Amino acid sequence: MSWAEQLDARRNEWEACGRARALCTLRQDGLYLCCGGKRYLNFSSNDYLGLSTLRYDGLDLPAYYRREFGGQSLSPFSHGTPASRLMTGNCPEYDVLEGELAALFPGKQALVLSSGYMVNSGLLPALAQEGDVVLADRLVHASIIEGMRTLSFRRFRHNDMQHLQDMLSRMMHPEKAWVVVESVYSMDGDRADLRELAKLRRKYGFRLYVDEAHSFGVYGTHGAGLCMEEGVVDEVDILVCTFGKALAGAGACVLCAPAVRQYLVNTLRPLIYSTALPPCTLQWVGMVVHEMRGPTMTDGVPDVAAQRAKLARLIQHASDITGQMDGTQIIPVEVGSDTRALEIAQVGRDAGIWLTAIRPPTVPEGSARIRISLHAELKVEQLHRVFTICSKVG
Fold first, then answer.
1. For the segment 358-385, what is each residue's pLDDT rounded down to a tens digit?
2. Any catalytic annotation for residue 158?
């Protein structure tokens, strides 16, 4: 059997058990996705503030930048910077965005990379020293797991602070530990116990790493995230925020002490060896973060605070329906088998709603699910509609 035939046989095995994946071309049309000539109400996007669904007829990003940040903040060619940041790719838009992020998180500095996966896969290998041990929540994202592969690491039961404390108490040098969590978990939609983590950090002296991918833009003062909302941001040594979800852009950043940032510039391989983001992408994200800090009320510019408030009301409606007291914008409907999750997703699409089946290895064996994702522009009646479908066939 040839190499290609071996790969094809393996994929046939995945197909038989409901785990084969394929790319589907989708075109966004406001609240809807268009595929194969049909329109589907989108309940699968991470665009939590609904920014990609709004109209921007009056938005002139270059004019906005000249007014808010000065003429030297703009790159003449906005579609690319064909080099890494350490070569010639460190365009002025990086300075604007990192300055806005630092203002959002006083006492920390920002370092922007091209994706959250790059940040998480590179941080721990860049920062860990001899003798360090990583203690990670069992449900942290695959990008964090990628970063732990070459290090000494252990996993504690999901959101089980007693299990984590037991691990720390048995360590001879708990100050050498890195404790890694997500503030809002991407597939379960539940929250880390950030206040208890902060208490444990004060007791044991470990370094705390929090991925805010699914809470940045949604929670906290100015949308700065759940750590800010819980009042523990100063207890966090490494804070990761992404721009491709609530901010409807691309890229990600690490927020840390100034000395840590300087160290990472010299050691973070995904930064050193990757082409920089295009200025147009940085311009969009810089504008959104600037508007998070304080709206300018300019024509065509999104009212980020208003979108965040709309999402909060929708999350409350969803919590009333599901009975979850501490609900988030991510609502898992666990169905168990892979094939059942695919069947329910298809029922949703037959009804004009785009639902996505989440299967292993993205989630643990036996916990396949439909992941309902809320965004600010959805209506309450649409929310009831999707829950009705899931309750009938789930």
1. 999 999 988 899 999 999 999 999 998 9
2. no
> Could you give the angle at which helices 279-293 and 92-104 cross, rounded to 10 degrees?
20
Strands 207-211 and 27-29: unpaired
Catalytic choice (108, 222, 245, 290): 245
Residue 394 pLDDT: 56
Interval 136-169: pLDDT, tens: 999 999 999 999 999 999 999 999 999 999 999 9
pLDDT of 202 strictly over 70: yes
Asked if the bond preceding 279 is cis, omega within 30° of 0, the reply is no
pLDDT surpassing 70 at residue 256: yes
Q: How far apart are CA 180 and CA 168, in angstroms?
A: 13
| Cα–Cα dist 28/42, whole Å | 9
85 secondary structure, DSSP code: I
For residue 349, the Cα-to-chain-centroid distance in whole angstroms is: 25
Annotated active-site residue in 186, 274, 367, 373: 186
Choose the catalytic residue: 211, 212, 237, 338.
Answer: 211
Length reported for the chain: 394
Domains defined along the chain, listed by start: 19-54+303-393 (3.90.1150.10), 61-293 (3.40.640.10)
